[in-house]
Amino acid sequence: MLKKELEIFTFADLLNHYPNRHIDKTQINKISDIGANTDYIQVAGTLLFFEIIGEKRSKRLVAQIKDASGILELTWFQGITWVQKNLIVGSKYLVFGKTGFFGGKPQIVHPEIEAFVPAKADGRSFLEPVYPCTEKLKARGLNGRQIGKLTYALISILHPDELVENIPASICKQYGLMERYEANCQIHFPTSAASYDKAIERLKFEEFFIAQVRLQLTRLQRYRVSRAVVFEKVGDIFNTFYSKYLPFNLTGAQKRVIKEIRNDTARGHQMNRLLQGDVGSGKTIVALLSMLLAADNGYQSCLMAPTEILAQQHFHGLSELLKEMPVEIALLTGSTKTKERKRILQGLLDDTIHFVVGTHAIIEDIVQFKNLGLAIIDEQHRFGVAQRAKLWAKATLPPHVLVMTATPIPRTLAMTAYGDLDYSIMDELPPGRIPITTVHRYETARASVMDFVKTEITKGRQAYYVYPLIEESETLSYEDLMQGYEQVKSFFPEPAYRISMVHGRQPNEQKDTNMQRFISGDTQILVGTTVIEVGVNVPNASVMVIESAEKFGLSQLHQLRGRVGRGSEKSFCILLTSARVSKEAKERINIMCATNDGFKIAEKDLEIRGPGSIEGTRQSGALNFKLASIVNDREVLEKARAAAELLCEEDQELNMAKNLQLKNYLQQQKGKNGWSKIS
Ligand code: ADP
Ligand code: MG
User: Fold this and answer.
1) Start-to-end C-alpha separation, the chain
2) What are the angstrom distances between the C-alpha of 274 and each of 158, 378, 407, 409, 420?
3) Which helix (H) or strand (E) holds 112?
4) Is 125 in the pocket of ligand 1 (CB under 6 A)?
5) 68 FRET partner, CA 20 to 30 A, in 61, 559, 581, 638?
6) 43 with 30: CB under 8 angstroms?
7) pTM: predicted TM-score of the whole model, two decimal places
8) Bridge partner list, 41
9) Are residues 441 and 417 in the same domain?
10) What count of Cα atoms within 13 Å lies in the side-chain half-sphere of residue 130?
11) Which atom belonging to ligand 1 lies closest to the Cα atom of 277?
């Protein structure tokens, strides 16, 4: 029963089933204290009577207890037989539960009830733990307090040696951590509020620390065992491009990241780098320079984008930049024609094609390289293990991998979810960007929004209109979009204005044509769904209108907004919503209007939604902490991370005497949670 309901299999599990609150047994309220606003209450009283009433579904056990101040009704719908067996009229009981009123009388449904024992008479502490419990268990009479009794029994027979310290003593000392045994006792049965806090602090630190040690070891292990191609030199190709064709000066952040990549790829172990940069921070050029570095060393590169549009855009942009360079670049996507595909496959095999840009089509088995040295994955957090494996299969030595994220993720999240990867941040935008102004307007003001867009178009700018994808129904989304399209058209009549539209239902060719017309400036307005979200780069576009903005998540809004503000002109993002939006949606919109900083937005997103739901993060055990939270315990995480890093750098094998207990602990725990080698 415990197994199924609470996943408690072992004594250790029981020990790790932490109370969600403590109650002070000496705090007994009067029944007459119960008012409309009372939440949980603890009372003690004598059982007046109990009886089973009703039939079938409405069958219930009703009892009443009485103290000096009044009478309280208790009701059970489940576990009736068991509960009733333990009730003795005239005995005194301690009752705890959430109060409510039924027919004007106070009552508790499914209270926790036990024979009343005066405080301290049983030698236990004042603060008694109450454990999370399921209704099913309660129905069987195993309530939170009963679990406490089991835990108490367990702790009383537990010897400190059976709960060996797993954090090296020097670290415990440095961070003032309570010992492990002590912390485990105190979290269940605290002797004071202060020691309870210390226990919590210690256990949170432990959770983070153990996780970080594992991640660091995985990372270091990869360095040691993985052999990889070596990019030993920066040669003519890189240097020529850098001095003659680089269209701008690199930002400090871009230079730093290039250096990191240069170092990584020169060492003979495989690079696995996550590049985090805000929208528009200039990740593409970093990708290109890395590819040139590979070419200088005789290796081919591939650049993979999540959509066909984006792949094409990369291809065109890179081809343009490389037009005077002695490197061959090709575009391979699902819609590449057979003849061209044949040519590319052959070119990759005999190394007459050096760079290939494309979609997932690149990782199909049929695509083989002569000597793939670098794989870049753009605008994606996630690139599955299976997909990586497919890439590996294309080379004798695994190629270096650079993953570029679509939008930033918070540092704490990156540290836990991607802590085994090397990780770069580009937190600097190219100079000269004018910040985007973001405003919120209600749909009732649409006409004036359209007028504003008109003045921008008159100035020679372009505009996006984005409609949400309605998750429940593709048809609805489509209708929404079509309606929107008609509406936009009525405000911007042809031939004075030209509009193109893109959406997921179009055949790729049509989508591309429409997209290309906007990119080339042939159309001034692009109406679309979120297909335009990622990566699209049209510097002349200065307005982004997002319809039903309340239906978008923060990172999506930020991505969409990132489509404007890419040129030298002032840009605007207009968030249209209906008059009534939820509090959460309003909060998102306020954040968007308040900041352009993707890292700040990511932090907020994490705060609002919690770690599990952040798009693109691994749903692995990496985020399953019992006590610690990457949102609220950031400082603890930073400390644990620092401690783990230092320790692992110093002693990769954990063979030093001071680390042996930790090593043992890790070995015992192996396979008990969702950790695995994920990169
Ligand atoms: P993202 O990081 O969102 O992929 P891009 O690589 O598409 O950003 O770059 C956005 C725009 O900024 C492009 O037009 C690009 O040419 C330009 N850009 C990139 N780096 C610089 C720089 N150092 N100086 C000026 N413009 C730059
Ligand atoms: Mg990009």
Assistant:
1) 37
2) 44, 10, 12, 11, 10
3) strand 112-115
4) no
5) 61
6) yes
7) 0.73
8) 97
9) no
10) 17
11) 2
Kindly give the distance from the C-alpha atom of residue 19 to the centroid of ligand 2, in angstroms, as a whole number: 47
Give tens-digit pLDDT for 179-207. Answer: 999 999 999 988 888 899 999 999 999 99
Last residue of a domain, one of 160, 187, 220: 160
Query: If you measure from the C-alpha of residue 192 to the centroid of ligand 2, how many angstroms do you get, rounded to a whole number?
Result: 54
Tell me if 559 CB under 6 Å of ligand 1: no
Are the CB atoms for 379 and 601 separated by under 8 Å? no
503 and 528 part of one domain:
yes
Task: Judge contact between 542 and 456, C-beta under 8 A.
Answer: yes
pLDDT in tens, 159-181: 888 888 999 999 999 999 999 99
Contacts of 532 (CB under 8 A, 6+ apart): 309, 464, 466, 502, 515, 526, 560, 563
Assess if residue 619 is contained within a domain.
no
Which residue is listed with tokens 């570095």?
293
For tokens 């207990």, the residue is 661
The verdict on 307 and 257 lying in the same domain is yes
Give phi and psi for 649, each to the nearest 5: -65, -40
Closest-approaching ligand to the CA atom of 563: 1
| The ligand 1 atom nearest the CA atom of 279 | 3
Task: Among 315, 429, 537, say which to mutate for ligand 1: greatest number of ligand atoms within 8 Å of CB.
Answer: 537
Give the tokens for residue 474.
Answer: 């593709």
Q: Whose CA is nearest to atom 24 of ligand 1?
A: 430
